[in-house]
Amino acid sequence: MFEVKFREAVKSKTPLLDTIMRYIVKRKGKQIRPMFVFLSAKIASGITDKTYRAASLIELLHTATLVHDDVVDDSYERRGFFSINALWKNKIAVLVGDYLLAKGLLLAVNNEDFDLLKIVSDTVREMSEGELLQIEKTRRLDIKEDIYYEIIRQKTATLISSACACGAASTGTSKEVVNQFKLFGEKVGIAFQIKDDLLDFGSGDIGKPRGIDIKEKKMTLPLIYALNNSSSSDRRQMINIVKNHSKDVNEVAKVLKFVNQSGGIEYAVNKMNEYRSDALKILHSLPANSAAQSMEQLVLFTTERKK
Fold it and tell me: Considering the domain boundaries, does residue 77 fall inside one?
């Protein structure tokens, strides 16, 4: 049902756009965020037609940000497929991202879902601010732990947070309950991103090469902890590699080894588990039903996944 509604939501009368939309629909990933929408609605009260619109709105926004991210990061592959910018170049990719965002906003406006529009508009603002904050800090490589949390809260957690809030809001529940779901989603989102950071230091097929965050000069929690708890000479050496030799596979391997030996992995795992625990406490304060059990399984999946 959701797949059908999402395909309808992205249709275009422009042949090129319609071709690209079919490509996007065909290569969609796990669709975790729509799951958060539907489960939140089920826990709060029950799924409505508005819930389907909320799920499509969230997925349209998420897809738009991925398309734009690939342009920003100069990335030519996502989930084993060519990115939009790899196939159709940057100009078209930016316009496709804009189109997806506009379709999502119009979906809300045309159905007078103004509460959903408010939630999602705040999310777009936060995601943009988070991305810019990360770019600013990456240039200087001076990210402290509190700044890191603010970046991932805005960049990643806010979208999962709004998925949960939109799901609850689609049932007509109170603002207080919607805010509970919003906070729950934020905690899950932070845990989700820390897990993503950890995968970059692990082994196996994670859908991207190991060390890609270092190559892109992204300061993630395992690396931040390792740098803050090392000698000044080790710190200088590692920062020098990230700044000036991040494309050198052998040099990147040194950073990966340094983080592993400095306790950065264990520290990040503990922090991830803390946020997961906070999220589950909120979940357990909400109505207990089969959807709540499924939501708990989804939370566990986000922090135990292999890719």
Answer: yes
User: Token pair for residue 116?
Assistant: 């959903």
Query: Does residue 168 sit within a domain?
Result: yes
Residue 79 belongs to a domain = yes
Which range marks the domain in which residue 137 is found? 2-174+287-301
Residue 65 burial by Cβ neighbours in a 10 Å radius (0-12, 13-18, 19+)? buried
Question: Is residue 247 helix, strand or coil?
Answer: coil
Number of domains the chain contains: 1
Chain position carrying tokens 């790899």: 86
Residue 253, Cβ density class (10 Å: 0-12 exposed, 13-18 middle, ≥19 buried): middle
Burial of residue 252 (number of CB atoms within 10 Å: 0-12, 13-18, 19+): buried
**CA dist., res. 139 & res. 201, Å (int):** 22
Using DSSP, state whether 190 is helix, strand or coil.
helix
What is the mean pLDDT, run by run of 10 residues, along the chain of 307 residues?
Answer: 72 78 72 92 92 92 79 69 76 83 90 94 92 80 85 93 96 94 97 90 53 75 89 86 80 86 91 96 91 94 82
Distances (CA, A) of 189 to 50, 78, 149, 150, 168: 23, 20, 11, 12, 17
Cβ-contact 99, 162 below 8 angstroms = no
Taking residue 102's Cβ as centre, other Cβ atoms within 10 Å add up to 12
Domain of residue 25, CATH code: 1.10.600.10
Cα–Cα distance for residue pair 85/257, rounded to 1 Å: 33
Q: What does the pLDDT look like over 179-215, one tens digit per residue?
A: 999 999 999 999 999 998 898 886 444 444 566 777 7
What φ, ψ does residue 61 adopt, rounded to 5°?
-65, -45
> Is residue 268 one of the residues assigned to a domain?
no
